[in-house]
Give the backbone structure.
Amino acid sequence: AQTVTQSQPEMSVQEAETVTLSCTYDTSESNYYLFWYKQPPSRQMILVIRQEAYKQQNATENRFSVNFQKAAKSFSLKISDSQLGDTAMYFCAFTNRDDKIIFGKGTRLHILP
Amino acid sequence: NAGVTQTPKFQVLKTGQSMTLQCAQDMNHNSMYWYRQDPGMGLRLIYYSASEGTTDKGEVPNGYNVSRLNKREFSLRLESAAPSQTSVYFCASSRPGTASYEQYFGPGTRLTVT
């Protein structure tokens, strides 16, 4: 069975610092998609970044980038120049394209002024 | 486009009462999903519907029923609510087979069962 593990339940960093959130997953598939979703206090789930497993290049979206290590089954999220608005719960998620997404348990990130 | 809408936003039920959570999407997506979110548990899939007229159980289906009324609407019913069903419920939709496979989420319903 596929699983997604986020080993950091909670993190705090100072504004403007860089922070990395960890995620590992387990699958026997070779072609799949990985996501990071953000859930701010408003509760809305927002897609931050997406990575396709067959693409070697790490995805980036402005201040957000990933370090995708396929052999290690690792998919970490780096937030550069962190801002107060980045305070949220972050979920790592996986799909092998079978209609379902599996979510990790989340990392609560606090950006401190 | 409104995206994915859910009603109600908040609800308090007594044990044994029933209710239906409504979800609709206007993105012409084939697949729709119901999740529950509990502290420390992430999002867990209750039921999903890959297309109009089909539904399948997810990870935690007990105590729930669903109806895919048409392509736009997917409802979740609690026949006899229990305190263990106190949670935040999210509806989502997607169009598998496209380039992204991402899911789009509604704003959630906070349900409390006393």
In short: DSSP finds no helices and twelve strands in chain A. Chain A touches chain B at residues 9, 33, 35, 42-45, 47, 50, 91, 95, 97, 99-101, 103-106 (CB under 8 Å). Chain A has a mean pLDDT of 93. The two ends of chain A are 41 Å apart (CA to CA).
